[in-house]
Amino acid sequence: MTQSTIPISSPxxxxxxxxxxxxxxxxxDWDRIRAIQLRGLSRYRVVRTAANLVLGLMVVQIFxxxxxxxxxxLWSVALFGVTVFPIYLVQTGRVPQLSHVSVQQCQKLASAxxxxxxxxxxxxxxxxxxxxxxxxxxxxxxxxxxxxxxxVLLNALPLGTILFNLVVMGxxxxxxxxxxxxxxxxxxxxxxxxxxxxxxxxxxxxxxLKLNEAGLAEKNEVVSLLLREFEEGEADWLWQIDTAxxxxxxxxxxxxxxxxxxxEVNGMSFLQLxxxxxxxxxxxxxxxxxxxxxxxxxxxxxxxxxxxxxxxxTRWWELSASPKINDDGSFAGFRGVGSDVTESRENSExxxxxxxxxxxxxxxxxxxxxxxxxxxxxxxxxxxGRCGMMMIDLDRFKSVNDTLGHLVGDRLLAMVxxxxxxxxxxxxLCGRLGGDEFAVxxxxxxxxxxxxxxxxxxxxxxxxxxxxxxxxLYIGASIGTAIGPRDGRTxxxxxxxxxxxxxxxxxxxxxxxxxxxxxxHVDAEERRVMEIALRKALEKDxxxxxxxxxxxxxxxxxxxxxxxxxxxxxxxxxxxxAKFIPLAExxxxxxxxxxxxxxxxxxxxxxxxxxxxxxVNVSAEQLYEPDFVETVVEALSESGxxxxxxxxxxxxxxxxxxxxxxxxxxxxxxxxxVGLALDDFGTGYSALGYLSKTRFTTxxxxxxxxQGAAKDLPESVAIIRAVVAMADSLGMSTTAEGVESEHExxxxxxxxxKKIQGYFYGRPMSDADVMSLFDDYRTAKLA
Length: 783
Prior knowledge:
Blueprint: H1 16-20, H2 30-38, H3 45-62, H4 69-91, H5 103-127, H6 133-153, H7 158-178, H8 182-232, E1 236-241, H9 252-257, H10 262-265, H11 270-275, H12 278-281, H13 286-297, E2 301-310, E3 313-325, E4 331-340, H14 342-356, H15 366-382, E5 387-395, H16 397-404, H17 406-423, E6 428-434, E7 437-442, H18 448-462, E8 466-468, E9 471-473, E10 476-484, H19 491-507, E11 513-515, H20 518-537, E12 543-552, E13 558-569, E14 573-575, H21 577-586, H22 590-605, E15 613-617, H23 620-624, H24 628-639, E16 646-650, H25 662-672, E17 675-681, H26 687-693, E18 698-701, H27 703-710, H28 714-729, E19 733-736, H29 742-751, E20 755-757, H30 767-782
Parallel strand pairs: 10-11, 13-15, 15-16, 16-17, 17-18, 18-19, 19-20
Antiparallel strand pairs: 1-4, 2-3, 3-4, 5-7, 5-10, 6-7, 8-9, 12-13, 12-20, 13-14
C-alpha cells in the first residue's frame, strides 16, 4: 500500500538526519517528501543568482587595486559559471523535475554547494592577504551576508546550506587565524553554530509548510474527484439556491432531473421549478409545504422525500441540504444533494399495497379488514355506538372452480368484488378474507334496517348470472352478521360470532342471511363435542347400517338394497345423517367411516339371496385415495361377496377435482366386475360429459324430477324421458329415487325406468329386518 504524501502532523515528527537527507525514516514516504522539499529551490533562484553576481562585483571592486586582474578575472568566471550554469540546466530541461528523490540524489545535490562555497572562500584565503584590514572587514561582511542569505533562501536544501556555510566559515577562521584576529575566531565559531541551528529549524518549518500545502492540494484533488464522480453518476446530483431561493450553478445532472437545460434552470425559483402546475393553483402537496418551511426556517434537513412535478409527471425526489454561511456569518442560501427515488417509492408503495390489498380483486385483504374492524370497535365503545361485521361466503363457487378451472374462478371472483364494491356506502368497507370468503365492515351499525337491506342486496346481486369466457355461471351468497360490541368485545370474538352466523346460513341451504345469536355458540360447542364423539364412534362400534330396497319396476321384486349409515351415539343418542355426515366431511373422517361402511355392507350382504345386490355410497374423498381399489378388493375378499353383487354409487362431484385419477380408479373398479351407479343425475354440472368419461351400469334419477313428473311438469317429464332414452342407448339401467306414492310408481314405470326406490316399497330397515323379509318371502314361496 502506498504511503500518504502527508504523513507528518507536527514538526517534532521530523528527525534531524531525515531533514538533512542523510537517511529515511522507515514509516514515511521520504522520496516524495524530498521531491517536495527540493521543488522549493526554484522559489528564489533569480534572487540568489542576482545576489551572487552583485556581491561578486563588490569583491572585484574591493580587490581591483591589490589583486592581479587575471586572478580576479578567473575568479569571476568561476563564480559566474557555478551561479548561472545550474539555471541553464534547469531551463533547458536537462535537470528533470522528479516526483521521487532518493537520499543519494539529495546528497549529490548538497555536495555541489561545496564547490560554490569553495569559490567564495578563495577571496577570503588568497585575496585578503594582499589587502588591508578594511578589505578583510569588507570581505567578512560579504561572506556573512552570503551565509545568512543561504540560510533564508536555501532552506529547501539544509544539508547544502550547512556545507556551504562550513566551507565559507572555515575559510574565514583560517584567515582570522593567519592575521592574528583571535577574538574573531570565537565570534565566527559562535556565528557558525547559530547558522547551523537556524538552518535546521528554518528547513523544518519550510518542509512542514510544503507538506501541509501538498496535503491540502491532495485533499482538494480527492474532493474534486469525488464531486466529479458524484456529478457523473446516474442517480444523484447537487443543487444550490441563493437567499431568494433561486437556483444557482445548476449542474447538468440536476438540470436533466428537472427536465430542462442548465441555462434555463439558473435563476429560476426552486419551488416553482419542482411544483409544476401547483405553482399557479397553490395546491401544493404536503411534502412541498414541508420543504418550503425548512427553507424558510433555514434549517438543515436530510433525506426529505418530496413529491415534485416534472414535465407534467409526478416524481419523487429525496433531498438533503444545509444552509450556506458566508465568512462574515451571513446567510447565503442552501447547498445540498438530491436523487430521484420515484422507482423505489413506487416499489415501496406497491409492496405496502400488496400487504394490505388482495392482488386478485383489488379489495382490502384480511389485514386491512381486521384493522378497520378494530378501529370501528374502538369508536363504538368510545361513543357508545355499534359496528358490524358481515361475512359472505359464495355458494356453489367450488363447483365452478373445480369444473372450469382456477382461471375462470379467478375472473369470477374479480366480478364478484366489483359488484360488492358497488353496493357499499361511505363508512362501509368491503374486502376479501381469502378463497371465496368476503366481508363488509360497517363502521356505524346502529341502523339495523340498513344491515338487512345490504344483506338482501348482496344476495340478490351476487346471485345474478355471470358471463365468463363464454360461460354463463350461477352462484349465490350466504351471509352471517355480528354486531359489536354486543356480540364480541374483541376483533377475534366478533369475527368468530359472524362466522357462526354464516355457518347457520350455510346450514340453511345457502342464499340466506343470519344474524348472530348466543344460541349459535351453544350449537358450535355442541358440534365440537359431537365431533369428538364422532371420532371415537368407530372405536365404540356406534355405527350401524340400514338398507332401503330397490325393486324391479315390472315384477316389483327386490333386486338390491342401498346401504345407509346410522349413528347411535352414547352421548347424543340417534343422530341424523344430515347432521353428522357434513360434520364427518369437515373433520376428514369420511374416508375411514366410508371404508367401514363398505366392509360391513359386504359382510352383511353375503347372507342375502344371490340375486340381490348391495349398493354402497362412496364419497369423492374415498375415490381420491390412491389405494381405494385395494380397499374394495379387500372388502370383497374378506366377506366372500361376488363383485357382481356390489354396486358403488358416486355423485358428479367426484369429477370436479383437477388433476385427480378418479376416472382411472372407476375403470379399475369396473374391471373387477363391480357395478357403478351415478347418483343425483342432472343436479350438477356437465352430466353428459361425465357419462362419456366412465361406463356406468346405472343412472339414478333424482327425486326432484320424480316429484315434478308426478305434478305433470313438462320439464321434469322431458328430463326423465331423455335420461331413460340415453341410458337405454348406452346399455345402462335407470333407477327412480324418492318414489312415495302409487301415482308416482305409475308415472316412472310409464316413462321407462327399470328400477324404483322409495318409501312406497319400503323405508330403510336393519339387517335383521332384511333377513326377516327374506325369511317371509321364502315361507310364502314354499306355501
